[in-house]
Amino acid sequence: MAYTNTTSRLRVSAIAALACGVALFASHSFAADYTYNSDKPEAKQIVGAELSKTLGAAPKKEGVKIGVVLKSLTNQYWQGIARGVEAAAKDLGVEVTIQAANSEADPTQQLTIAQTMIGRNFDAYVLSPVSVSNLTPAVRELQSRNVPIANADDARIAATVYIGPNHELNGVVAADYMAEHLPDGGEVAQIEGQAGSSAAILRIKGFKEGIAKHANLKLVASVPGNWDGTQAYNATQTILRKNPDIKAIYANNDTMAVGVAKAVTDMGLTGKIIVIGTDGIPAALDGIKNGTITATVTPLPYYQGYWSVESLVRLLGGQQVPDWIVAPAQLITKDNMTEFFDDKYEVKEGLYNK
Amino acid sequence: MAKLEAANASPGAAATEKWSVRRLFSEWRELGIIAALIMTVLVFTAIDPEFLSSYNLVNIVLQASVTAILAMAVTFVIITGGIDLSIGTALALSAVVSGLLMSQGYPLPVVVLGTLATGALAGLFNGTIITLSGITPFVVTLGSMSIFSGLALIVSGGQTVYGIPPEFSDLLAGKIGPIPTPIVIAFVVLVVSSVVMRMTKLGEYLIALGGAREVARLAGIKVGFYTAIAYVISSSLAAVGAMVTVGRLGAADPALGADLLLPAIAAAVMGGADLNGGEGSMLGAVIGALLIATLQAGLTFLNVQAFYQQVAIGVVIILALLSNRLQKA
């Protein structure tokens, strides 16, 4: 125990020494000054599973209380994050309080909850904002109080640490899978998420760049589906009629992938076209199980919740945690699904560190 | 108020007595809800002393500010014997308009005037239809609720409007000295509304419309005109609430406001507004909004999930109205 402590301290001071000016300033006070740079382009990255290897064991601290404000608990994706939060709290011996808005479309209620939670003076907060701006007043308040914030999953805010997927990588992983399974190359298409959404922009970019790496793959259509299953269904029918040689379609999320799969099935092309989605929602996993969807790329929400709490415990214990804990993009297929998910499509625990 | 109710009352000595009893009751009503508010705060404080922290108290008032503005808005209409179910979506429509104006870099006066004009037009639409058609306000504003919601989606293209310059957020949702701006705005609305109701002809006429429409007509009050005015005020105040909301969220979501309608009407009624018209209190409406915000904050403190909070708040609203009724009987 003592040994781990010393090594982690050594590492901490090594990092601090590198950041020379900041280190000088910081050495004057014992109270940790938390940074809020997780949304900056130059945010330092670390893969979630590497946390323990790089920083050593998470420090033990008595009586730590963490407040968690999620988007909504009506969706299995967010329930997955909540499960991860609770599991980490149990493993690390801290107390968590989870609150969420009634729906993912209620920015005001989420702000109300967040601001009230601040009044309860938790030691640190996990926030998953409905939008990039709706929690701004709460985030500012926490910043002025020097309270560490972990920003989990989607909308990125100026937090101490961001725990979420590299959306660009999601697109790349999908492109690589296509290249691997289409050795003779061919035409591919993409159904894009909501224009302007950061997740969509990055996934589109990642997929396009991924396809460009493989000379024999050609992106013949990239059309908007606005995260919507029906729009994806219609778009797929249109592009498949125009380009009957398409061999693979990547949808920026699973709701659209389900729509794509339905269109492919209705046109009698099941199994002839590779369909890949993103997120790992049950409907898509169901599609993978029965063969209408080929694969989905998911950051495994359970671990985002877990690492959110873990990174806050580390920060409160005085460790330096990189700005961005990357939740790896896992490609889920029929073959490896049971490795990651149980029968109820819940993410399995202990995949990375146990 | 006195003049009108005296006119309503039966002639002779009983008139003075009834006047004073009614007046006592209306005072009692505000006292009742103030007592309920204080008790709620005390109960939550007894459970968790942190509840009484200055941050939390200010936060509760802050959370109540937009509901309070809407509760006062709807009070103007309820007093005339009407109802405005469209204030929530009028807020959404004005919010989207103000969001677009802000994000396209228009200066503050243009944003404020444009947003208020949107609200006023929405209210003028309600008021005109109600006055000209004679259809009940409930049905007309039910229809316009849907119309305004649709317009908000059309104007915004169904998308949340982002890119609100931080200056607007700071101005509308920042602080004036130590006090959050939304609280100041709600307070100003309270003062102005109370003055209008108590000290102007307009206030007197609005009460007259709700208390005894025929008497008001015979007394030469332009019933149609003043009815329409009430709806214009209501929607314009919704536009004020819209600017505050957009400032706070840093974005304008066309789906805003749907969840504000019920608390606003509940706050108004808990605060003493009579759905039959003729009675209502701006201060009461504000305290009603504070009571709802206190409950929300308290339940969050007790770690009650949002789903259960909705049930709890509904129960409290019914209880409050029940006790009002018992008091009256």
UniProtKB/TrEMBL annotation, chain A:
Gene3D superfamilies on file: 3.40.50.2300
InterPro entries: Peripla_BP_I, SBP_2_dom
Domain Periplasmic binding protein, chain residue ranges per copy: 66-319
Range of residues in the leader sequence: 1-31
Coiled coil: none
Subcellular location: Cell envelope
Major location category of this protein: other
Keyword terms: Signal
Pfam families: Peripla_BP_4
Family affiliation: Belongs to the bacterial solute-binding protein 2 family.
The name this protein goes by in its record: Substrate-binding domain-containing protein
Upper taxonomic lineage: Bacteria, Pseudomonadati, Pseudomonadota, Alphaproteobacteria, Hyphomicrobiales
Automatic annotation (TrEMBL), chain B:
Subunit-structure text: The complex is composed of two ATP-binding proteins (LsrA), two transmembrane proteins (LsrC and LsrD) and a solute-binding protein (LsrB).
Topology with respect to the bilayer: Multi-pass membrane protein
Keywords assigned: Cell inner membrane, Cell membrane, Membrane, Transmembrane, Transmembrane helix, Transport
Species lineage: Bacteria, Pseudomonadati, Pseudomonadota, Alphaproteobacteria, Hyphomicrobiales
Protein's UniProt name: Autoinducer 2 import system permease protein LsrD
Summary of the function given for this chain in its UniProt record: Part of the ABC transporter complex LsrABCD involved in autoinducer 2 (AI-2) import. Probably responsible for the translocation of the substrate across the membrane.
Pfam families named in the record: BPD_transp_2
CDD domains xref list: TM_PBP1_transp_AraH_like
Transmembrane segments: 28-47, 59-78, 85-102, 108-126, 138-159, 179-197, 223-244, 256-275, 282-301, 307-326
Localization terms from the record: Cell membrane
Species of provenance: Shinella lacus
